[in-house]
Amino acid sequence: MKGFRFDESRPLVKAAARKGKLEMEYLQLGNGEILLIREAEKEDASRIVDYTNQVGKETDNLTFGEDGYGISAEMEASYIESFSKIDNRLMLCAFIDGNLVGHLSFTGGVRPRTRHAGEFGITVLKQHWGKGIGTQLLNYLIAWAKQGRIIRKINLKVRSDNQRAIRLYQKAGFVASGTNTREFCIAGKFYDSVAMGLEID
């Protein structure tokens, strides 16, 4: 997306450098650490696979667990490449000191009548929870959607007992639209999910 720029009110530490379709963004977190957010690249594939397998061990709020996501680095690289070529998809990586600490993936609809809407998921390494990384990834997604004028609805599903995440989404303007019963089955126990959405105008 040529000419993409963030709102100048966002706490940029220094001017972003061009990198692919989007720009890298450096932000200073509340604890003084510098967070880099950028679009995923094929070279990140191995790190993303290792990262994903790690976060699967750290929380039961995902669709996969400690056994990992079950894809190879080669498959992930192909996945990243496909995302970079489609204008209603976005994959982001968040780094601190060169280490991958957060990830966001947004997928828009494939048909003309649904390509304006899509669903996303966010993960953050447990040791970095509470630093605002999820918030910054979400802000980036919303800014991308607003300035791109392609995505008009951002959807998500979250476990109904994950109040921390629900508060994050509500703060960003997402509104609950319903409950999906028995969405997750973990260790033989069922959990509901809440569907939430944000209209982009």
Automatic annotation (TrEMBL):
Pfam families in the record: Acetyltransf_1 (PF00583)
Record's keyword terms, sorted: Transferase
UniProt feature coiled coil, ranges: none
Domain of life of the native organism: Bacteria
N-acetyltransferase domain: residues covered: 35-201
Transmembrane intervals: none
InterPro entries according to UniProt: Acyl_CoA_acyltransferase, GNAT_dom
Gene3D superfamilies: 3.40.630.30
MF terms (GO), sorted A to Z: acyltransferase activity, transferring groups other than amino-acyl groups
UniProt name for this protein: RimJ/RimL family protein N-acetyltransferase
Species the sequence originates in: Hydrogenispora ethanolica
